[in-house]
Amino acid sequence: MDLQLDGLTVVTDGRSLVSELSLDVPSGGVVGLVGPNGSGKSTALRCVYRTLRPSAGAVRIDGDDLSGLSLRRSAQLVAAMTQDGAVDLDFTVEEVVALGRAPHLRGNAALGPRERELCEAAMDRLGIRHLAARGVLSLSGGERQRVLLARALTQEPRILVLDEPTNHLDVRHQVELLSFLRGADLTVLVVLHDLNLAAAACDRIGVLSEGRLVASGAPEDVLTAGLVRDVFGVSAEVVTHPGSGDPQLLYSLTPTGG
Amino acid sequence: MNERTYVTERPIAMSPPVTAEPTAAPPAAQAPRTGSRRRFFASPPRLFALCAVLGALLLLSVVVAIGLGAAVVAPEDTVRYLWAALSGGSIGADELTTYRIVWEIRTPRVLLAALVGAGLSAVGVAVQAMVRNALADPFVLGVSSGASVGAVLVTVTGGLAVLGIHAVSVGAFVGALAASVLVYAASAGRGGALSPLRLVLTGVALSFGFQAVMSVIVYFAPDGEATSTILHWTLGGFGAASWGALPLVTAVVVLGVVLLHRSSRALDLLALGDETATSLGIGPDRHRRLLLVLVSLVTGVMVAVSGAIAFVGLILPHLARMVVGATHSRVLVVAPLAGAVFMVWVDLVARTLAAPRELPLGVITALVGVPVFIGLMRRKSYVFGGR
Question: If exposure means fewest CB atoms within 10 Å of the residue's CB, which of A250, B34, B194, B268 is most exposed?
Answer without folding.
Answer: A250
